[in-house]
Amino acid sequence: MPTSAFASLLIAFVAAAGAVPLLRDMLRDRPTVRSAGAVAMALGVVVAAFYSDPWPASDRGLIFGAAALVLAGLALDARLAGSGGATVRRIFEVAGTLVAGVFLFAYLEHDRVTWSVGFMMLAAVSLLLPIATAALDRLPSATPSLPAGMVLVQLLLLMFFGAANADGGSRYSLYAEFAIVALPVIGALLGCLVYLSSMPWRARPGVALGTGGLLALGFMISWGALRLGSITAEVRGGTTALLWLVAVPVFEFVRESVGRLAGRMAAQRWLQQPGSAGLRHLVQAVCNAHYSPAALLSIQAVLGLAGIGLCKLDTSGYFLTLALMALGVAYMLVPVYLTWRRPAASLGRAAYSQHGGDRA
Question: Which of 65, 218, 258, 278 could make an SS bond with 129 (beta carbons 3.0 to 4.6 A apart)?
Answer without folding.
Answer: 218
